[in-house]
Design brief:
Residues 77-99, 225-279 are annotated as: Disordered. The chain is α+β, with helices and mostly antiparallel strands. The chain has two domains: 1-75, 2-Layer Sandwich (Alpha-Beta Plaits); 87-231, no CATH class. Helix content is 42%, strand content 10%. It contains ten helices and six strands; from the N terminus they run E-H-E-E-H-E-E-E-H-H-H-H-H-H-H-H. The strands form two sheets. The chain has a four-stranded antiparallel sheet with strand order 2-3-1-6. A two-stranded antiparallel sheet has the order 4-5. Strand 2 and strand 3 form a beta hairpin. The longest helix is centred in the middle third of the chain and has 19 residues, at 134-152.
Length: 279
């Protein structure tokens, strides 16, 4: 069993294990969740993480609310923060537990959770006290160089250029990306964000510990906007269809029936589901 464990009590009886798992997965990979004996008014669990930094992040949520219940997040162990002795190679996968706590807080908000200012301030303090993971800094600095090269030219970085210069190069960078597929990876968001007019600000947000609560909310809006941009367009209401659209027959498949949605496109989008409140 993982030694990187936090104990969570005060959980609402209506909170499912899946919901609890999804919520704490923002902190890092979870190995397992063990249920403890509890009364009918609340539930208690022990959450076992793969990395100590994930357990460290989970503790910042102590005193927050989930499904109208106050969470008490504690640990009997002192968890070291980052595995900074692990080498990071440019382009290698970055785990959730490597990210700055302010960045993780922004992801919570972008997903629809509501974090109170005292939890956001706790995230900022963790970044100030523990610093940013060397693995994550290496990752972002590699993107800074590669995106800067595509957008601005050889030996250029996003962080070294004023935004007025970057704005003029964003379209060119996007075209090159589409042609060569540079940013088709699990962390495409960061490449796109650095290529945007906000690129310099985004780079600073993730690589420095000097932040304010407002900065977290601004980054959350950028993440949420990117999520919205990736969603398929909603079909037009019948009343808004043109005469041509109304008269166009639905294509049939080989059996003569109208084609149906399949695969991932047929699945409900979890980002549209109601999210609980954390304060």
């Amino acid at each position: 069993m993982s030694q990187y464990t936090v104990n969570v009590s005060g959980i609402s009886p209506s909170t499912t294990e899946t919901h609890l798992h999804d919520f704490f997965s923002f902190c890092g990979n979870i190995k397992s969740i063990d249920h403890k004996e509890s009364d009918a008014s609340s539930k208690s669990v022990a959450i076992h993480f793969e990395k100590p930094s994930a357990a460290h992040t989970a503790l910042m949520l102590n005193g927050g609310h989930l499904d109208d219940a106050t969470l008490h997040v504690t640990s009997t162990s002192v968890h070291p923060d980052h595995h900074d002795n692990e080498e990071h190679h440019p382009g290698a996968h970055i785990e959730q537990s490597d990210k700055p706590r302010a960045g993780i807080a922004a992801e919570y908000i972008a997903k629809g959770y509501k974090l109170s200012d005292h939890i956001l301030q706790r995230a900022i303090e963790l970044d100030n006290n523990q610093g940013i993971s060397k693995r994550f800094l290496s990752y972002m600095q590699g993107l800074d160089t590669s995106v800067g090269k595509r957008a601005l030219g050889p030996d250029q970085t996003i962080s070294g250029k004023v935004q007025s210069t970057l704005q003029g190069a964003t379209t060119r960078a996007k075209t090159i990306d589409e042609q060569k597929g540079y940013t088709k990876s699990a962390h495409e968001y960061y490449s796109k964000a650095l290529s945007s007019p906000f690129g310099q600000k985004v780079f600073s947000f993730y690589t420095t510990t000097s932040k304010q609560v407002l900065d977290i909310h601004e980054e959350a809006r950028r993440i949420a906007d990117e999520h919205k941009a990736q969603q398929p367009s909603a079909p037009k209401p019948k009343s808004e269809e043109t005469p041509e659209e109304k008269s166009t027959p639905v294509p049939a498949d080989a059996e003569g029936a109208a084609p149906s949605a399949a695969g991932s496109e047929a699945q409900p989008d979890s980002s549209t589901q109601a999210a609980p409140t954390v304060v």
